Amino acid sequence: MTDPQAVARAASGHDGAIAAVAPAETDPRAFLQAAVNGLVTALQNAGVTRLVWVSIASLLPGPSGVPAVDTDGLPAEYRPFSLAHRIALETVKASDLQWTAVSPAGDFAPDTSPTGGYALIEVET
Fold first, then answer.
1. Among 33, 67, 91, 105, which one is least packed by beta carbons within 10 Å?
2. Would you write out the chain's pLDDT as a tens digit for each of its 125 residues?
3. Is 43 in contact with 5 (CB distance < 8 Å)?
């Protein structure tokens, strides 16, 4: 994803792209910024106008309306990854792409029983 030419070749001739990336053993902010910059450039160069970006649940508003990343309840070890996703999503928003972000459920209490379910919500940007 950090190579716009390779991504443009892969995307060429397609109507849209789905991107789900995570840094492997590297700084999440540097990786995700490079990945989203490469992706946006590549899609625009390839004439692909639609993107589904797989985001992260900690950016979604909780019951109070505040995203988990902006609360004390988010474990500190998840904060850099969440903040990197926020920056990447801002880059997608600022692009000319038609985009949708999807966020899998968070898993911040793996030793507890699941509660609730899934919901489709629209978040104002």
1. 105
2. 788 899 999 999 999 999 998 877 889 999 999 999 999 999 999 999 999 999 998 998 888 889 999 999 888 988 999 999 999 999 999 999 999 999 887 765 667 776 766 666 676 65
3. no
Distance between CA 10 and CA 66 in Å, rounded?
37
Rounded CA separation 120/100 (Å): 12
Q: Which two tokens stand for residue 55?
A: 């985001």
DSSP 35: H
Beginning with the edge strand found earlier in the chain, give each strand of the sheet holding 98-102 in spatial order: 16-19, 50-54, 98-102
Q: How far apart are CA 37 and CA 4, in angstroms?
A: 8
- The encoded tokens of residue 40 equal 């946006």
